[in-house]
Amino acid sequence: QVQLVESGGGLVQPGGSLRLSCAASGIRFNFYTMAWYRLAPGNQRDMVASIGRDGSTNYADSVKGRFTISRDNAKNAVYLQMNSLKPEDTAVYFCNARLLGMGSGDWGQGAQVTVSS
């Protein structure tokens, strides 16, 4: 069965950094588009960053230049390096794995990121 396990969340001060990790199993990882989404209270679940099977990346305007998504196909893992964090980045961050034409794909359990002084 598909399993996506996130780690690396926590509490950080504004301007600080965190690195989220997502370990995938039960999928042929290199065929999937991987992405990070986030959900904050009162907001919809929005895509933060995605990375295709060819390594191409896409970022939300709100995080561009601060966040970096990467993948390691040998480890079946995807990462989100978050720098210069702002209070508005506070959210639950979800790992997503999706095949083209397969709907919403599979989701991790979520990792809480809180940016506060």
How are the secondary structure elements laid out?
Elements: E1 3-7, E2 10-12, E3 18-25, E4 33-39, E5 46-51, E6 57-59, E7 67-72, E8 77-82, E9 91-98, E10 106-107, E11 111-115
Parallel strand pairs: 2-11
Antiparallel strand pairs: 1-3, 3-8, 4-5, 4-9, 5-6, 7-8, 9-10, 9-11
Distance between the termini: 40 Å
Number of strands: 11
Low-confidence runs of at least 5 consecutive residues: none
SSE sequence, one letter per element: EEEEEEEEEEE
Largest sheet: 7 strands, mixed
What is the alpha-carbon Rg in Å?
Answer: 13 Å
* Number of distinct helices: 0
Tell me the strand percentage band: over 45%
The averaged pLDDT comes out at 96
Judging from the principal axes of the Cα atoms, what is the shape?
globular
> What structural category do the secondary elements indicate?
mainly beta
Helical residue percent? under 10%
